[in-house]
Design a protein that fits this description.
The structure is a single chain. It contains no helices and 16 strands. It is mostly beta strands. The strands form four sheets. It has a six-stranded mixed beta sheet with strand order 8-9-10-11-12-13, with no helix packed on it. A four-stranded mixed beta sheet has the order 4-5-6-7, with no helix packed on it. Strands 1-2-3 form a three-stranded antiparallel beta sheet, with no helix packed on it. It is elongated.
């Protein structure tokens, strides 16, 4: 804003300003006020391979990030909590939207892309690499659904979506004893009738 201009650097092509110091000295821009001679800073130091952006000497100060038409997008508060979409984060990472639409966090490497999402009151874990397939759901009743997103009223609901019957769960302790394992499986007899199979000491 022109009402804040004390120094203007202008060029007909690319413009800039260079601040050069020895390797073991800070090079940066610092801001201050009558009540705080140095409270905001942006600086580098070569010998420590460091770029610093933040506040100094005032524990109540927060760092805000704006985008678009000067709209706050992210805030790092004085307690070190990061808020995305909120100016009052209550966790180390707090992601918020005021709308009822889905909001998510993506985790991706060269092998897989997973997404944790809340939508319609549900917490879902989606396999984005498999076409955004929902792998697990936790609903507002605290019920856990694996392979299904329709609540059946059970605390744990596991469904095999590939049309086959097979192992559902495996429980074991931290020993190498083969008798310390229990496998629960959904099977069928020769008539095709389903039954639940327990294999104590199974592999």
């Amino acid at each position: 804003s022109s009402d804040k201009d004390t120094l203007v650097l202008e060029n007909s092509t690319h413009g800039g300003m260079s601040i050069l110091t020895p390797d073991a000295a800070e090079a940066g821009i610092f801001t201050g006020h009558p009540s705080a001679a140095r409270c905001g800073e942006f600086h580098t130091r070569f010998d420590t391979r460091m770029l610093r952006i933040g506040t100094r000497g005032h524990s109540e100060f927060e760092t805000q990030f704006y985008t678009g038409n000067w709209s706050e997008a992210m805030r790092l508060d004085a307690a070190g909590n990061l808020g995305v979409g909120t100016n009052n984060p209550s966790a180390k990472v707090h992601v918020y939207t005021a709308a009822s639409s889905a909001i998510n966090i993506g985790l991706q490497n060269s092998e897989r892309y997973w997404k944790m999402q809340t939508d319609g009151g549900l917490l879902t874990f989606n396999d984005v690499s498999a076409g955004d397939l929902v792998r697990m759901v936790i609903n507002t009743s605290g019920n856990v659904l694996i392979g299904d997103d329709v609540d059946s009223g059970f605390r744990l609901h596991v469904r095999m979506n590939d049309g086959t019957r097979g192992n559902i769960a495996r429980f074991e302790n931290n020993t190498n004893d083969g008798d310390s394992k229990v496998v629960i499986a959904a099977q069928a007899n020769q008539s095709g009738d389903p039954y639940l199979y327990f294999d104590a000491g199974g592999t």
